[in-house]
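Onboarding guide, step 5: your first structure request.
Type a short instruction followed by the sequence, for example:

Predict the 3D structure of this protein.
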Amino acid sequence: MNELENQGRFLPSRTYSRWRWTVRFGLMTVPVATLIFGLIELYLTPKKYQSTCVFSIPHGPQPEEIVTLASSRAVIGSVVDRLGIQKTIDCDKETALGAVTKKLEVKVIPGTQRIELTSEFSNKETARDIADEIPKSVLRHLTDGLEKDLAARKGKLANLVQEASDEAHQKAADLAKLQKIHDGSTDESVRLIVDRAKRASILADSEVERLKNLMANEKLSTLGSLPRLDVATAPVIGDHASSPDIGKELGYLFGKSLLYGLIAALLLPYLFELALPLDHGSRRLEPAVEL
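The system replies with structure tokens like these:
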């Protein structure tokens, strides 16, 4: 094969003419095979059951933030662990996460603060449990940090109450000691010392009561502002499996099969030309060009 023939070897007209059977294979066999395997996969796909929950979280973040949080890896991972979904479908953690999030839909109901969550799963009870557990996991995620802050503030106030109580007990003991020593004394200076001790003891007792009231009010005010879960519609076990959009699925399969066939028809001739180049002995004689 001379240099001129080698340069023209990969011209589309020559390549597709030489390997026309691969073009036919790509345009006919590949689309049909892709369509058949797609239909088999669609037929064998396990049925899915849906369960829906409508909820809101008063004193929580905006509904849009709750939607993002409900679909987050942290929340879904917690749900997978609590429900034991890895054991349910016998898979690893990543596969279980994908199985839960693949058909999970979370959206804000327009014009309200409520959120609609729809879970779809191959097991009807698990679909219900996922829709039930996700809002609870969101609430735990929101309140964990707040409860830790509350516990820290409560601990500080408890320490202050204990210190004030110790001081009040000491003041009361000092007053009792003075009264016992100077009982019946008419000395004015002694009476002033005893009166000061009484006032100090009363002030110490008042400080203890003030701190106790502050701790009680702090707890009540914080609890009143903590996010809480309000479930408007609890999820139930679905009786019927959700059926896929057959028209949409068939359209997708048909388009995919045509695309694969076109790619095969365009690429296969060149692949064969690269793998099995023609030599001088097998090369067809080109017709002479009349002048």
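Each response can be followed by summary notes, for example: Residues 10-45+244-275 form one domain.
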